[in-house]
Amino acid sequence: MAMETRRPEATGYPEGEVAKRQVSERQRRGQFWYTVFVASTLVGIVALIALLYNIIDGAFGFVAVQNKVDPDAIVLAVEEQNMLDALNITTSEDDNELAAGVMANPYAVGFFGYAYYQALADELNLVAVDGVTPSLATLDDGSYSLSRPLYIYSTAATLQQKPQVAAFVDHYLTNAPALAGEVGYFPTTDADIAEGKAALQNAVIPLADPSAVDGDIVVAGSSTVYPLTKQAADQFQAAGFAGAVQIDNIGTKAGIARFCNDAGVDIANASRAITRAEIEICRSAKREPLEFEVGFDALAVVVHRENTFVTNLSADALRQVFMTAERWSDVNPAWPNEPIVRYIPGSDSGTLDFFVERVYARELSELPKETLIEVLAANVSSGLMRRFENDQPFAERTRENLYELVLERVVQPTAVRSWSLTDSLLRRPQIEAAVALIPNGELTWRSWVSMRFLTSPQDARAESAGIRPAIMGTLWVILFTLLLALPVGVGAAIYLEEYAEDNRVNRFIETNINNLAGVPSIIYGMLGLAVFVRTFEPFTSGKLFGAVDPTTANGRTVISASLTLALLVLPLIIINAREAIRAVPDSLRQAGFGLGATRWQVIWAHVLPNAIPGILTGNILAMSRAIGETAPLVVVGASTFVALDPNGPFSKFTTLPVQIYQWTSRPQPEFRNIAAAAIVVLLVLLLSLNASAILLRNRFSKQL
């Protein structure tokens, strides 16, 4: 018969079915706890992945930046002014006057609309640009670099309130391809005409016949578009329109400005597309511009009929001819040593804007140092310029530094909206459409973690804020925490393990050390505030050492934070150091004592070298906790806004966790982006410090 419950008196171990049941129960319990362990590990891994995804998702992505001043407009203004300041310059908003000026001087050069050249082709020579002359073929394939569309602008309200304007625009678009050929321009595409027709029909339904409408039409703007609009007006009147069509030649820029601010102007002629800044001016006046493309122009660079030496100009030669060169021989030594006489459109002309954009295209960051100083002087007060000069003379500043100053003080980019990495990758068309509605808006890809972010101080604007003071504050606090806590913690562990007797006092100390390891960190912050900030304020503020600083006279300094964190991590260091010391075999101690060594000699020569890897492991855990603490530092007095780096133990400070806490509490979404970026930096810093400690621990382990 099988024995189920009897235990042999000789061994005391279960046998038979009892033993099998106990083994089975242990296996079930082991399997249960193994399943719990695996499930907990998987949950932890999933939570860590979700956390990292959330951080990375916020640290990168598209940002809509709104500039107070368009950087391209700054460059355009600089280059236009350089052209206007060149020698022998004559300007006019009337292309006829420019053509007449070139025809009057054998050494003159100018540029204007192709229709004006066509009308005077017998009196002028057309200059090729990079070996290409204007034609329908070179415009279609894009090989002629100075080609551009021509536009007219109106508003839906004007088209609805003035039937004669709607009828004129409809007639204009219907006949635009033929009109372009008649006046010497090139026809726009059928798709552009169809798009304009659709916009017109969306604004006005139905459209009236020319003979059925009455009233005057006022047009203002580009002299380049003037021949096309004039031809359209003549045909419109020939079709039965009885009213007057007034066309004022005042230049694209002036025409759009007048159109936006004067409800009496029905249509604006433009030799370039309306800019975003101009659109905003129109919108502020409750006028929403509608764009209609009516033709295509090839900007004609021309010289006198007797000028046979200039037949082709490269892009570089073109820049010299209209700005830097004084004589023709400066461009090409084989050409006459005669002054270059220039005829160009005036500052209100869209043709000048277009020419400068194409020929002198540069980024703001490419402007020379002297030009950047001029841009600053033209856009900031003289008092601010003096302050910049006092901070660091402009002559000693780098071009990169001046560029950053122009961005900050003149362009003033502001992040008005940001998108996560996921949205940026999956919803780009919708994002681009949203940015198009932002005045002076620009879509940029932003890595919030950047060298500028790491090296810049704190700022009230998220797009220009940095974490350099927070990084330096973190390093200073952790350095002093380590210097204070490690010797005291290891010394206490040595005493408790090697010297302390097993009595009531020492057992009380051990019990309190274990209890202190579980005390909430905010309690340590309150202790630090009461003891280090207030009681020992003469020491922690630096007054005892003559370091009197009004901002740190209250004791809320790096050393106060370090002392508080040292108390916080001290129990952890002591407990781990004791475990490491306890793990050293007693045989090493006995061998040392047998050779006549004192207790301290045994500890120094045998116990500590073998315990160092374990001690360093405890120190890694302690420093990891200290780096991530926020609550005690907030109580002790860490600042949430510090623009200067701490330079010693008695400095005002902030740390990365405090900075992250402050940014996450701000309502603007951009601050959450830089908070995510700061978390990435904190993780990298933490992993780097831990890796250094691990390498040091492994090195000591190999030496044993």
Description:
The chain has 704 residues and is an alpha/beta fold. The protein folds into 4 domains: 71-76 and 85-136 and 301-359, D-Maltodextrin-Binding Protein, domain 2; 147-298, D-Maltodextrin-Binding Protein, domain 2 (3-Layer(aba) Sandwich); 365-461, no CATH class; 468-703, MetI-like (MetI-like fold), CATH 1.10.3720.10. Helix content is 58%, strand content 11%. It has 30 helices and 15 strands. The strands form 4 sheets. Strands 2-13-3-11-4 form a 5-stranded mixed sheet. Strands 8-7-9-6-10 form a 5-stranded mixed sheet, sandwiched between helices. Helix 1 (16-59) packs across helix 30 (669-703) and helix 21 (468-499) packs parallel to helix 25 (558-582). The longest helix is centred in the first third of the chain and has 44 residues, at 16-59. It starts with 15 loop residues before the first helix and ends with a helix. The model is unreliable at 1-8 (pLDDT under 50).
